[in-house]
Design brief:
612 residues; alpha/beta; Rossmann fold; Helicase, Ruva Protein, domain 3; 6-stranded mixed sheet; 4-stranded mixed sheet; elongated; binds adenosine-5'-diphosphate; binds magnesium ion; binds zinc ion
């Protein structure tokens, strides 16, 4: 897309540049017009020869080492010369005297220009040192080190709108509020509404975070300043902080506008995590960013968007209210979304009418939006190489294989077999939600991988709850075993994909027994002291303050809870095996299913009461 970078360097940089060029020009001039050596040099021996022949008219001895003088020329035209005395020639003066030559003595005069010439290297050196110091103080305006390099996208550029972003319904919905605000900040300010200052877009690479940020600017028709977190981190200490300041200044001047900080984790990593002082620059930059965000008022009409794929490493200070207090998840596309993305990008190239976008979507599991855009481009390149006027299905197939290979290398690709196994596993989790009276309602189930998880069955609490009943905990544990049970039913054995589920179930069961008094055989007794060591962070150490005998009883109680839950999961899924298979097949087809989709599929009503 066409971008329009801001014209010319900023003012501070221009002044420094003029000084720099001035100094350089002066040095060249000094070099060219050095006034001391005007006459042609001749060797001392030649001078002696002239002397011998009586050609010398007059001499002027400067500093006892340089002789300037005149030679008697033919026809009365005298000629200037100069020569250096190579050694202390005691006889020279007597010789000159004896020949009746006019002798003068003199000391070398320093022309002002000459003085400058001698001083120039020093001036230049000090200028450089001064510049470096300004750098280190962080308020540097010399050259453009301290200036941010935010690229500016203006209204006049080809606009990106939400229509250019396929899928991402939830993200768009959340960002719509920001768009409304930017279109008419006064309306919101008048009502006293508090608008988020910073919105953090969280998602894997290539899911369209940058695209969404641009689309927000495009929808609102405001300028968009784009800067990457890694641009802030430079060699010189203080440069990053200075860039942050500049970026925000620029934002204030151009309000309403959007500041977009890509790769926020490059600057926003938790402070104090590194060894020694090597992270000073980054910390300083991060601190400056926090200061700037605090100093901002949403009334200014500037919204800060940021993107990261590592929200877990961000400094908690960044996520506090008044900073990036709102997070928008930008998910990997599911099968339908992949189809939509393909269609958007295929519309930009002359694709043949016979292209089956749906089939391509099905054949590209694990691909991000960026991968798909790339695939369309590769397909077009194949078509060009074959001298075609339209991009054919064959080109797409080949492009797909090429890109899948790259993805396979980064181990993101999921084989058909894995996809199937994941579908059964997640269907097991999901289906249980509908047969357990105390479980939270299912929100959605997906086999689109995110991070290291191959799939996910997500529930949504019917209401906020700060304490949960025993029934809820038990059902939660049963649901955890849904994947395990489904794998057993379908394959007769289970995979390593159950690690997290088993751990989660065990944690809950142990808490039931030791903390919540939910195991009859143990009674309402707190076993094990919980403490939070200050320096180790969030790790919770359990102090054992019970006997070996009690330990055995706890283990048995935990095992019983888990065993019962596992059996229950197994029972329910065996009884409804048809639905389990049906749900898995539907998942393989659609990749993501919502609560309503599943209800429609099996004709479940809203009869189940979610009792917390
Ligand atoms: P991220 O910033 O999350 O790494 P980008 O926004 O840079 O991803 O996406 C790269 C490219 O991938 C975009 O320019 C666009 O062409 C394509 N793309 C990604 N997601 C989508 C989407 N949902 N719809 C259309 N195109 C997309
Ligand atoms: Mg990006
Ligand atoms: Zn699972």
């Amino acid at each position: 897309m066409p971008k329009k970078p801001e014209a010319g360097p900023p003012r501070g940089a221009r002044v420094s540049l003029i000084i720099f060029v001035g100094l350089l020009a002066a040095s060249v001039a000094l070099f060219l017009f050095d006034g001391t050596s005007s006459a042609p040099d001749i060797p001392y021996s030649t001078f002696l020869a002239h002397l011998e022949e009586g050609n010398v008219e007059s001499v002027r001895i400067i500093d006892q080492r340089l002789i300037q003088g005149r030679l008697k020329g033919k026809g009365g035209v005298s000629q200037e010369f100069s020569t250096l005395i190579p050694y202390v020639d005691g006889g020279l003066l007597a010789d000159l005297k004896s020949r009746d030559i006019k002798i003068e003595g003199a000391v070398a005069e320093m022309s002002p220009l000459r003085v400058l010439g001698e001083l120039f290297p020093w001036i230049f050196g000090f200028f450089l040192i001064w510049m470096v110091f300004r750098q280190m103080q962080g308020n540097n305006k010399a050259f453009s080190f301290g200036k941010n390099r935010a690229k500016r996208y203006q209204e006049s550029d080809k606009k990106v709108t939400f229509a250019d972003v396929a899928g991402q319904k939830e993200a768009k919905y959340e960002l719509l509020e920001v768009v409304d605000y930017l279109k008419n900040p006064q309306k919101f300010v008048k009502m006293g509404a508090r608008i988020p200052k910073g919105v953090l877009l969280v998602g894997m690479p290539g899911t369209g975070k940058t695209l969404l940020a641009k689309a927000v600017a495009g929808e609102a028709g405001v300028p968009f300043f784009h800067m990457s977190g890694s641009d802030f981190v430079e060699m010189f200490v203080g440069v990053g902080a200075s860039r942050v300041r500049d970026l925000f200044d620029q934002g204030r001047k151009s309000a309403p506008c959007i500041l977009f900080i890509d790769e926020l984790d490059a600057v926003g990593r938790t402070r104090g995590a590194g060894y020694g002082g090597g992270h000073d620059e980054r910390e300083q930059t991060l601190n400056q960013m926090l200061v700037e965000m605090d100093g901002f008022d949403t009334k200014d009409g500037v919204i800060i968007l940021a993107a990261t794929n590592r929200p877990d490493v961000l400094d908690p200070a960044l996520l506090r209210p008044g900073r990036f207090d709102r997070q928008v998840v930008v998910a990997m596309p599911d099968i339908q979304e992949r189809e939509d993305i393909l269609k958007i990008h295929m519309a930009k190239v002359p694709a043949s009418a016979g292209i089956d976008a749906q089939r391509l979507a099905r054949a590209t599991p694990g691909m991000s939006g960026a991968d798909l855009a790339n695939m369309v481009n590769e397909a077009t390149l194949f078509a060009v190489r074959r001298d075609r006027t339209e991009v054919e299905m064959q080109d797409f197939e080949e492009a797909r294989d090429k890109i899948m290979m790259g993805i396979a290398r980064s181990s993101l690709v999921i084989s058909e077999e894995e996809k199937k196994a994941t579908a059964y596993h997640e269907a097991g989790h999901a289906l249980l939600h509908y047969y357990l009276p105390n479980a939270d309602p299912l929100h959605k189930v997906t086999i689109v991988p995110r991070g290291r998880a191959l799939g996910l069955a997500m529930s949504l609490p019917a209401k906020d709850a700060y304490s949960r009943g025993r029934g809820w905990v038990r059902d939660r544990i049963v649901i955890s075993y849904g994947g395990f049970a489904a794998e057993t039913i379908v394959y007769g054995e289970t995979t390593t994909g159950t690690t997290q589920d088993i751990r989660q179930a065990t944690d809950l069961a142990r808490k039931m027994a030791c903390e919540w008094g939910m195991a009859e055989e143990l009674g309402p007794v707190a076993y094990g002291q919980e403490e939070e060591p200050i320096f180790i962070g969030k790790e919770i150490a359990q102090h054992k303050d019970y006997s070996e005998d009690t330990a055995m009883r706890i283990d048995r109680a935990v095992f019983n809870i888990l065993d019962e839950a596992r059996k229950k999961a197994f029972e329910i899924l065996t009884e409804h095996r048809d639905q389990l298979m049906g749900l898995a097949e539907e998942l393989i087809r659609k990749e993501t299913l919502l609560d309503d989709d599943i209800k429609a599929l099996f004709g479940f009503g809203d009869t189940r009461t979610a009792e917390a």
